[in-house]
Structure formats: structure tokens, C-alpha cells
Amino acid sequence: MSQSKRIDICTQNTISAVSKQKRLRSIIFYATGIILGIVCGLVQQPFIQELMDFIATVFTRLFSFIAVPIIALSLINTLAKLGRGKESGLIFRRTIFYTLLTTIVAAVVAAVLFKILAPANLPAEVVGAADPNAVQKASYFDHIINVIPNNLLQPFVSGNVLSVLLISAAVGLALALLEPSAKKEAVENLFGGLQDILFKLIRWLIAILPIGIMGFIAKLIHELEGGLILGGLATYFAVVIGSNLLQMFVILPLLQLLRGLNPLRVARGMMPAIAVAFFSKSSAGTLPVTMASAEDNLGVNPKVSRFVLPICTTINMNGCAAFILITSLYLMQNAGYEITTMTIVSWIFIATIAAIGNAGVPMGCYFLTISLLSSMQVPVLLMGVILPVYTVIDMLETGVNVWSDATVANVVDRDLKGKLDESSDDKLAPHSVA
């Protein structure tokens, strides 16, 4: 064995050992936060309860602070990098069609399951109090008017996420349609740099997240009243998990069957990517594995996989759409809003658009839901109760998202068989594989 190979092996072993140590420290940190949260919740000491309330409030505010800018920058950067060539347009149109189709269906399945299982409300002191005079006074036309911004900065200052999404989509598309130039490249680099800064802030926030979990768990235990909370929350979690499982095992395989694919073969080929997604909770981090699985195991045209999968990793969020819809309806219901059929239909489209603009970072969907509801003056204290078990939901959602990405890539590849130039052309890829 050559000296260079020995060095490479030693380096890989060292990196692996350091990674294992980091994971172990993270597990210990989370376990400590959960245990301390339980202990503090059981201790009937006013100062400790005030401290736990303070910690929970601080983390809720931090979530709201980081969410709006990261949503805007993620959507702008995604849309700005879209290709405009002939083959790019051919692939892109199908990618958008199947992405919207699967995301809308995921939201519809979630809405139907929410209506059928109807999770019960929690006590008012757990979810926070809404202003009874503000609930459902505005018409749907008023909500639409509130989404349309009258200046550039106001939606960001007020936290109006729907307006932010509208502005970001317009800016991203306008940037994508500009002719290549040094100015365009400078603007793209600026937005990309700002996004990197916010990603760093999010990593810092996640690093201290067990402290927030401690505060939320303590608050939950302190406010726990009989079995009502457990019953309502258990049904809520059943709706979230059930809708994701239906999307994974019924809806997406059915789409593959309708397009002439064998779901079992596709699942076997994509299993490495799905497994990595489930345990890493990051569809963006799983992207290299997803691409390799699609190309090497299933023979997907690199022109398709290297164009479709990076886009889908950012905008194809089936699991997130289901979570946004279910969680938003549940919090609104707890806050006293009347959940009508029109409300549910409206939120199917809101959840779809919001999921497309979701940041490709851990807990991005959680942050986005908080921002959406905060902008509507819906109390979000209940999000702290959901947080301790969100890790499990996040694992399942990420697995569903990557499975949906794989489905779209394979279906688009099937649709375009024989219609693309078979020669490799990496210029079609809107994102770097690395």
C-alpha cells in the first residue's frame, strides 16, 4: 500500500472518529436537556417555572427572527439559478408539474386526515390566548389584500410571510431571466453569501436547541392537565405521521405505476438515499447520495438527475406541506378560529406555496410554520409543546421528501426517454453536485 493511500485511510478514520464523538456529545446534550426539563417541570418552585417560561419564550422569538429572512433568501437563490436552455426548459416544466402535483396531493391527504380524525383542543393556558375580537373578523378578500405588499420592507418588518414569499418569488424569477452579466453574478453572490450567513446562525441555534427543549418540556409538564392534552396531541401526531405514511406508501408509488414505473424497483434503487435522509434529517445533505442512487442504481439520465434533484431538494417538500397544513389548522383551531371547508381549501394552497419556499435546513419547516402563524397573530406557544417530538416528525418528513424527489426524477426521466441528447452536458445542472 502506498504512503498516500495510508495517509488517506488514516485521515478518513480520524474524521470518522471525530464525527462519532460529535454525535455522542449531541446525544448526551439532548438527553440532558430532556431530563432537566422533566425535573424542572415537576419541581413546584416559582423561580424555576419563571426561568423555564423565559427560556421557552426566548427560543420562540429566535425561531421567528431567523425564519423570515432564510425563507426569502432560499426561494430567491433557488429561482435565480434556473436554466433557460431548450432541454433545461423541457425538464424544468415537467419537474415543476410533478413537484406541484405531489405537494398539493400531500396537503390534500393531510387535510382529509385532519378532518376525519379531528384532534381535540388543548387547555387555553397551554396554547396561549388569542384576541377574541380579532378572530375571523377579516374576510378572505382582506387576507388576499394583506398578502399584496405596498412597499418592499414592510412585509419583512411585520413578519408577513406570504408577502415575503411573493416578493422573493418575483425577485428570484426576475434574476433568473436577466441576461448573464457581471452585475447579475454580483447580485447572485450577494444573496448566496447572505444565505450562508443565516445558515451559520441556524447551526448555532440548533447547537443550543436542547436548552430550548428543556424549557418547553418543563412548561408542558407544569401545564399538563389530566389526559386531555395527551389525547389531543396524540391525535395531532397521528394525523401528521399518518399523512406522511400515506404519501410514502400509497400516493408516490401510485404515481410511479401510472407513469409505467415499478415502485419496488425504484424503492430498492433509492433505498441508500432514503436511509441517509431519514437519519440525517437533511434532504440537502443527502443530495449526493440521491443523485448517485438515481444514476447508478436506476440508470436515470444524468441530464435529468443533475437538473431535477437539486431543484427538488429545495422546492419539493411533500412532508413539509403536510406538516404546515395540519399544524397551522390545529393551532388556529386551538386559538378559537373557525375551521371551515373554505379555510381548509385555502390552507391547502398556502401550505403548498410555503413548502416550496421552505429553507433547505434542519427544522426549516418548523421555523416556517411559526412565522406563518405569527404573521396572522395566531398564538404559537403550542409549537413549544410540539418541539420535543418534532425530531421524529422531521426524520419521517425528510424521508418522504427524498422519496418524492426520487419519484419526480424517475418519472421525468421516463417521460423524456428518447427526447434528450444522450451526450453528457453538466451545464444543465442549476446547482453544483458537490
TrEMBL record:
Superkingdom, according to UniProt?
Answer: Bacteria
The way it spans or sits in the membrane comes to: Multi-pass membrane protein
**From the Swiss-Prot or TrEMBL record, what is one GO molecular function term?**
symporter activity
Question: Which ranges does the record mark as transmembrane?
Answer: 27-48, 54-76, 96-118, 161-180, 201-221, 233-258, 307-332, 344-370, 376-393
Q: Has keyword Transmembrane?
A: yes
Q: What is the species listed in this Swiss-Prot or TrEMBL entry? A: Candidatus Anaerobiospirillum merdipullorum
Q: Entry's Pfam families?
A: SDF
Q: Which family does it belong to?
A: Belongs to the dicarboxylate/amino acid:cation symporter (DAACS) (TC 2.A.23) family.
Location(s), subcellular? Membrane
Q: What is the lineage of its organism?
A: Bacteria, Pseudomonadati, Pseudomonadota, Gammaproteobacteria, Aeromonadales
| Keywords tagged on the record | Membrane, Transmembrane, Transmembrane helix, Transport
What GO cellular-component annotations does this UniProt entry give?
Answer: plasma membrane
Q: What is this protein called?
A: Dicarboxylate/amino acid:cation symporter
